[in-house]
Amino acid sequence: MCDDQLLHANRRFSSRGLAILVVLIAGLFAGVLAADETEIFQTLKKRLVADGFESGRIDSIFASPDVAFEKGGVSAYFMHNESKLNYKQFTRPWSIASAKKYMNAHHYALAAAQRKYGVDQEVITAIILVETKLGTYTGNKSVINTLSTLSAMAEASPRQIIWENLPDDERRMSREEFEKKADQKAGWAYRELKAFLAYTEKEKMDPTVIKGSYAGAMGISQFMPSNIGPYGQDGDADGRVDLFVHADAISSIAAYLKNYGWKPGISQKEAFKVVYHYNHSKYYVNTILEIADKLKG
């Protein structure tokens, strides 16, 4: 072999060797990261078992390949801005027409809910329209991943991961503000996680496959798990509360609004206060009431 051939051979060997080395290093780091993500829920799992959940079930759930630390979705949760949402799209003529078709398709369930709870079916429909586009979009985030990740932020290491994952050019809060919000949300999310696990156990659902909003709200009604126990209703009388079923979601919304003071003939001012409990946004509430008026018209 001449010197030039030998040189080319050495270069090819070096390139291949470097490529193999890169692959090995990448695999090593991937393994470390995977192990870290597996371990990141260890304290959370112990808390859940201490609070009465069966250890075997908790181990099985968190061993699922579908359960993971949700960096992206939870970071988006801290960046969420209600005022930027385009609620006005739901008051357009084509949207109102779709809502009227929905009312015809689900007339029986809506009429039954109005009779039982005294809540206007137009308001129920307006909420379903805004929350999930009449049940056609109920969210694509893993509820257990969202709530488990937020719950894990009670610890410093998971909290730091989320902080570092916030885009620098869009970060709108100081570290002090972030820490304060993280404290609040970690405690809140843990309560929601326990309610979610209790609900899915009661209804024999697989918690690892349920999708919802970036905040963990789920179903056609977009209930947080803690609201399902007191307000979830079996609207189709099949013996289960499944908020991905229209009749159940309709009855559950009606039960929720009645609990907060909705009654037949309610004034606009009182109606505003009741719907505000569903979503603490004046923009949201005004949109719901505007849609309801259009549906009655």
From TrEMBL:
Superkingdom, natural source: Bacteria
Signal peptide residue numbers: none
A family per Pfam: SLT_2
Molecular function GO terms recorded: peptidoglycan lytic transglycosylase activity
SUPFAM superfamilies reported in the protein's UniProt record: Lysozyme-like (SSF53955)
CDD domains, alphabetized: Slt35-like (cd13399)
GO biological process, one term: peptidoglycan catabolic process
Transglycosylase SLT domain boundaries: 39-265
Stored PANTHER family: MEMBRANE-BOUND LYTIC MUREIN TRANSGLYCOSYLASE B
Name by which UniProt lists this protein: Transglycosylase SLT domain-containing protein
Organism name: Desulfosarcina ovata subsp. ovata
